[in-house]
Amino acid sequence: xxxxxxxxxxxxxxxxxxxxxxxxxxxxxxxxxxxxxxxxxxxxxxxxxxxxxxxxxxxxxxxxxxxxxxxxxxxxxxxxxxxxxxxxxxxxxxxxxxxxxxxxxxxxxxxxxxxxxxxxxxxxxxxxxxxxxxxxxxxxxxxxxxxxxxxxxxxxxxxxxxxxxxxxxxxxxxxxxxxxxxxxxxxxxxxxxxxxxxxxxxxxxxxxxxxxxxxxx
Length: 217
Ligand SMILES: Nc1ncnc2c1ncn2[C@@H]1O[C@H](COP(=O)(O)OP(=O)(O)OP(=O)(O)O)[C@@H](O)[C@H]1O
Prior knowledge:
Elements: E1 3-12, E2 15-25, E3 30-34, H1 41-48, E4 56-61, E5 64-65, H2 71-80, E6 82-85, H3 97-102, H4 116-126, H5 141-155, E7 159-163, H6 171-186, E8 190-194, H7 198-203, E9 206-209, H8 212-216
The chain binds adenosine-5'-triphosphate (ATP).
């Protein structure tokens, strides 16, 4: 799916954070949102994922203006299309790793459902296999990011919104995460990554400098 911001502006606490920002994130492409700390990368990612409203401009998905989506339309978009790999977001600490991936209570243990194979595969790919019964709250920050990635794999999401996925990873896990995200793009998914990491940026097909319009004013 094509995800676009058209001339969006956002102020937080009365302070402008994004000022006339536009970006096109195409399917089959991994797009990097880059810029100095505080330039608004995370804010832009949240706007594109409909987690944060814009003050001006539009967010378009496959050409449809979704800026005015109702709460239920937003939920449907998140459920049917989106996966978020964000820091401190969307992981339920009091639930198991398996629950967080599948959002189903009975997938492991005695009841084996048809999705168990997919669960195992998604955990194998992120190096979390064997930890399905642990509480998510016991995982480190980097492990939680990989858990969110397992959920994206399990769901085979159409659009991935990813914030600093390699920031707290060692080099082995960094390469693994970069490879997994690249694979999503190769399979035609839309992958949008906010990052400072030069290796991550090198793996991206398109690079968007956040705040460049404001800088050129
Ligand atoms: N909830 C909030 N309350 C107040 N200010 C905020 C909030 N969220 C973001 N900001 C401000 O908006 C600006 C942009 O933040 P954002 O997190 O989008 O930047 P970033 O480019 O992702 O930064 P970094 O690379 O350091 O993660 C910052 O100045 C930040 O302080």
